[in-house]
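Quick one, tokens below. Sequence please?
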């Protein structure tokens, strides 16, 4: 097995061992066979689905998170996206955070996986419906730094954690809010 697959498998096992919710441990268990059986799981051309890297960006107080109003999906979400062959998913999440926000001060709060979410992406044009195996990392950034809205977003906004559900009430978002501990 390639070193990056071994490292990701170890991170997934660590995440599953720390999970307090049985659903999270079960989700982590779904990732391991996927990355073992799909040699191209880092590429968006992997038709059943592919790995993605996301950044749950919080400020230093960990009371605010940066969300993007995603252009294609028309939903408020965390920043992140395709890893395009990059096996270092944390590096991909940091890159996506910078590209989608214009922030230069993004730093990983930990090298460990913060959250996982497997979700369906609907058919769009010639792109068939597929799964995103999203690996999410806790990222800190300076809330006073100016934001730059990229072409992938309709808007960017720092949202108080207590108000995230009014922007996106999904369990996926609620789970990340619950895991975020104030500094």
């Amino acid at each position: 097995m390639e070193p990056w697959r071994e490292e990701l498998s170890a991170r997934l096992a660590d995440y599953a061992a720390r999970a307090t919710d049985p659903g999270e441990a079960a989700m982590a268990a779904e990732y391991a066979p996927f990355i073992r059986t799909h040699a191209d799981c880092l590429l968006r051309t992997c038709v059943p689905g592919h790995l993605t890297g996301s950044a749950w960006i919080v400020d230093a107080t960990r009371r605010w998170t940066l969300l993007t109003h995603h252009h294609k999906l028309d939903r408020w979400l965390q920043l992140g996206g395709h890893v395009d062959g990059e096996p270092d998913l944390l590096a991909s999440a940091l890159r996506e955070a910078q590209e989608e926000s214009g922030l230069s001060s993004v730093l990983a709060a930990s090298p460990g996986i913060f959250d996982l979410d497997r979700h369906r992406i609907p058919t769009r044009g010639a792109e068939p419906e597929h799964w995103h195996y999203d690996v999410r990392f806790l990222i800190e950034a300076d809330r006073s730094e100016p934001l730059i809205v990229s072409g992938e977003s309709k808007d960017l906004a720092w949202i108080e954690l207590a108000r995230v559900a009014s922007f996106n009430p999904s369990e996926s978002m609620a789970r990340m809010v619950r895991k975020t501990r104030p500094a």
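The longest strand covers residues 130-140. The beta strands are 49-58, 64-70, 76-77, 79-82, 107-108, 115-121, 130-140, 153-160.
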